[in-house]
Amino acid sequence: MSAAEVLNEEASGATAAAGRIAQAIEALVLRRVADDTLPLPPLPTAIAACLKVASTSDFELKALLPHLELDPMLAARVLRSAQSAAQGPAVMFNTLGEALTRLGQKNVKASLQEGAAERLFQSRDPEIARQASLAWRHSVGVAMAARDLCALTSRSDGEEAYLAGLFHDIGKPVVAGMMLEAERQIVELRSRSWVGSREWTWVLSRTHRKVGVALAEKWSLPAIITRCIRDCGEYDAADRQSLSNIICFSNALVKAAGLGSGETDVEDAKALVMIGRSILGVDESLVNSLSGNVRSRVERQV
């Protein structure tokens, strides 16, 4: 049975059937994961090749050049990152080699990881593109906040936290694409929409994590990142200092600062920040330091 057939059956009632629609989407996703038929996008070839080169601690920057030269968008990202690191538009890099040298191994890897995540949050479809753009801004904010939180609390896993923040919502654009395609087919059959925007958002939030985990496994992301995608939806009181809790807290903090990826209850987000403060042992001044400039930092980066 196709996605449209499943959703057409489940959506034939009123929008109050959103719960059943979410269950249908979730069942469909799980079945396609099990059958290896879920249409997950592959990691772009050049990015995959670069990440493979950069997977060792002693890789040579020049080994990335042949792969970067095959991907203009990725090469442009590296050049922009190098110019940003140089702190001023007056500094120009004439070659990719110069840009790589300026960035260094650590920053090059971060730029590659950002490139991998950002590709997923792009679409030619205007509706998916709009939602994906919001989700990408939100993800960058969570990544920044998580890395800063690790630094301010003397944790050593700031880079893992940044990557987990970037990828924590990667299932959303994939599920949005599935839902939009199903909706188009239903509209063609019945000449009406199947759910409203609020129900759409609810279904998306209910189902995207399983898709995100499937995508992380397909892309062979580190196991800690996959666990964060799966577990960052709520706090784990049994493992208070877990990286998943860091991402859960950063997610709430960024939403409370007005950078949600969809309809966001700011008061709920603030409540989650308060709970996270208690679980992680974070004081109010640190929270204010993290949230004070997150919006402007995200806007400068994206």
- Helix content range of the residues, please? 55-70%
Query: Radius of gyration, Cα only, in angstroms?
Result: 20 Å
**Globular, elongated, flat, extended or rod-shaped: what is the shape?**
globular
Roughly what is the average pLDDT, rounded to an integer? 80
Specify the number of helices: 15
Largest sheet: none
DSSP, total strands: 0
Uncertain segments are: 11-15
Beta-strand content: under 5%
Termini separation:
40 Å
Based on helices, strands and strand pairing, what is the structural class? mainly alpha
Helix/strand order, N-terminal first: HHHHHHHHHHHHHHH
Explained architecture:
With 302 residues, this protein is mostly helical. The protein contains 15 helices and no strands. The chain has helices spanning 3-10, 18-35, 45-53, 65-68, 72-85, 96-120, 126-152, 158-167, 171-190, 197-218, 223-231, 243-256, 266-280, 284-291, 294-301. The longest helix has 27 residues, at 126-152. The two termini are 40 Å apart. The relative contact order is 0.12. Mean pLDDT is 80; it is low at 11-15.
